[in-house]
């Protein structure tokens, strides 16, 4: 995955990660039903809910209505430094549908790209909750995870993503007691991009804002980056729009949500010197040589709802064995569709992700193999042993216009070179100003989430 550390979505009056919990707006988590299945094919419905990430929320002074963060600038009085800011500022509850375009009904979750209320909101990121204060933790070794997705309304430049990250189940409250908001308010995000756009950063012993060293974005009036980033293992089950899709594990040398700064964050020229693998080991059918597999009217038809099955196979077919393979299956119109096969010179006809596939891909494409260097599939398996949090989001890309997913990337290399062509979108597509204007109503719908024994969640 080639997104940068900052996910530039900020468009509210004040959006940030907060230590304190606000009381001005009641936080009500939208309900979402999921199913847990067994080898007998029996599935049990679980009443769950979703919570909005803290970085989208209104951040204001604890005792009033004054914004701690407006546009991409901190209030100098409330936030003169990191520690004081976290003490002075509180996250508040969210109007999910009215402000953020997030709606849930039964087993279906809809995320609208742009919502215009009193303020313009772009994109969103939500987590599945087990209860009001705890994220649902997934341990998926020797298990499969299945969901339906309708991404027919997502054009070039957008990403409707479903993935897992190694967040703390309580959003960091136990490790960082000064965090009073916790999972109830969507705190604790981390991923392998070590995002530095997170405005309130949990340190090892406390919660601090990311004020010191904050640099407003030159391309986004509502975004910026700070000195610190937040890193952890990431398993991208689905990053996609109507033109392309990728499944991508990312490894790390750390085993829990971890603060980074400097080289450890892997920014710029230090990309391959950080503590996490930013590129990952992706299986994008188009990039792997089958350009007729997934897209409008193709074998996997993105104009219709798709059932996506991901199987996490272990070396001994037990939940305690080493993760050895990640398999992908699709179901559409009653037909089970096996994953496409690799058609790249010098590579075998792989149709799943293994360490051998990843090593062969990196060699064939001439890419740095940071995935192997930082632990490969073992890193993903270890994270699932601990438990990972389910994330669903929709976003655009202020760094490289999502070209890494759906076009030719890098753009200064011939598209005929192996690994450069990733989708049929133009290299001039995906500019945020364009997609936010032309595709404001774009929506991704996730539904029918199931998880359990391999072979139990689809037929």
List keywords for this structure.
1,4-Beta-D-Glucan Cellobiohydrolase I, Chain A, globular, single chain, 3-stranded mixed β-sheet, mainly beta, 7 helices, disordered N terminus, 459 residues
Protein model, in words:
- By secondary structure, this protein is mainly beta.
- It has helices spanning 82-88, 96-100, 355-365, 370-373, 376-386, 403-406, 432-438, and strands at 20-21, 31-37, 43-52, 59-61, 69-70, 73-74, 89-91, 102-105, 108-112, 114-116, 120-122, 124-131, 134-135, 137-138, 143-150, 158-165, 200-202, 207-209, 215-216, 224-225, 228-231, 234-241, 244-250, 258-261, 294-295, 300-301, 306-314, 323-332, 335-338, 352-353, 388-396, 443-453.
- The protein has a 17-stranded mixed sheet that branches. A 3-stranded mixed sheet has the order 1-7-4. It has a two-stranded antiparallel sheet with strand order 5-6.
- The radius of gyration is 21 Å and the shape is globular.
Would you summarize the structure shown here?
Helix content is 11%, strand content 34%. The protein is mostly beta strands and 459 residues long.
The unreliable regions are 1-18, 201-209
Q: How many separate domains make up the residues?
A: 1
Total DSSP helices: 7
Indicate the percent of residues in helices. 10-25%
Strand content: 25-35%
Full CATH superfamily name:
Glycoside hydrolase, family 7, domain
CATH class: Mainly Beta
How many extended strands? Answer: 32
Tell me the CATH architecture. Answer: Distorted Sandwich
**Radius of gyration over C-alpha positions, nearest whole angstrom:** 21 Å
Overall residue-averaged pLDDT value: 89
Shape descriptor reads globular
Please give the alpha-carbon distance between the first and last residues. Answer: 30 Å
Q: At the third CATH level, what is the topology name?
A: 1,4-Beta-D-Glucan Cellobiohydrolase I, Chain A
Oligomer, anyone? Answer: single chain
Given helix and strand content, the structural type is mainly beta
Largest sheet report: 17 strands, mixed
């Amino acid at each position: 995955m080639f997104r940068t550390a900052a996910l530039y979505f900020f468009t509210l009056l004040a959006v940030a990660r907060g230590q304190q919990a606000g009381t001005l707006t009641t936080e009500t988590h939208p309900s979402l039903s999921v199913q847990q299945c067994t080898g007998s094919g029996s599935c049990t419905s679980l009443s769950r809910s979703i919570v909005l990430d803290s970085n989208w929320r209104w951040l204001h002074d604890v005792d009033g209505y004054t914004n701690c963060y407006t546009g991409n600038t901190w209030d100098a009085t409330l936030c003169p430094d990191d520690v004081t800011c976290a003490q002075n500022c509180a996250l508040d509850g969210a109007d999910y549908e009215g402000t953020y375009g997030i709606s849930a009904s039964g087993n279906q979750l809809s995320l609208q790209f742009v919502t215009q209320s009193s303020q313009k909101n772009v994109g969103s990121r939500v987590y599945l909750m087990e209860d009001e204060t705890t994220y649902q933790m997934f341990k998926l070794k020797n298990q499969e995870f299945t969901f339906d997705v309708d991404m027919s309304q997502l054009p070039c430049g957008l990403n409707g993503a479903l993935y897992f990250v190694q967040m703390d189940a309580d959003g960091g409250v136990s490790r960082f007691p000064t965090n009073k908001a916790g999972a109830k308010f969507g705190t604790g995000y981390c991923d392998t991009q070590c995002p530095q756009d997170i405005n309130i950063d949990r340190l090892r012993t406390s919660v601090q804002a990311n004020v010191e060293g904050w640099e407003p974005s030159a391309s986004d009036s509502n975004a910026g980056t700070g000195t610190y980033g937040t890193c952890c293992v990431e398993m991208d089950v689905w990053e996609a729009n109507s033109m392309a899709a990728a499944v991508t594990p990312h490894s790390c040398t750390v085993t829990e949500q971890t603060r980074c700064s400097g080289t450890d964050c892997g920014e710029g020229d230090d990309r391959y010197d950080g503590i996490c693998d930013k590129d990952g080991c992706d299986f994008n059918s188009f990039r792997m040589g089958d350009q007729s597999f997934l897209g409008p009217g193709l074998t996997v038809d993105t104009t219709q709802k798709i059932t996506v099955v991901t199987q996490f196979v272990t070396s001994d077919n037990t939940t305690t064995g080493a993760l050895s393979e990640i398999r992908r299956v699709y179901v559409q119109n009653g037909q089970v569709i096996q994953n496409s096969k690799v058609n790249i010179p010098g590579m075998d006809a792989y149709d799943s992700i293994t360490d051998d596939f990843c090593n062969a891909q990196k060699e064939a494409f001439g890419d740095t193999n940071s995935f192997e260097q930082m632990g490969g599939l073992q890193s993903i398996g270890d994270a699932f042993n601990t438990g990972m949090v389910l994330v669903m989001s929709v976003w655009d890309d202020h760094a490289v216009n999502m070209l890494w997913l759906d076009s030719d990337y890098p753009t200064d290399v011939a598209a005929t070179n192996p690994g450069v062509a990733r989708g049929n979108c133009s290299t001039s597509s995906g500019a945020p100003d364009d997609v936010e204007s032309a595709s404001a109503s774009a929506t991704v719908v996730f539904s029918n989430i199931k998880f359990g024994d391999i072979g139990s969640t689809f037929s």
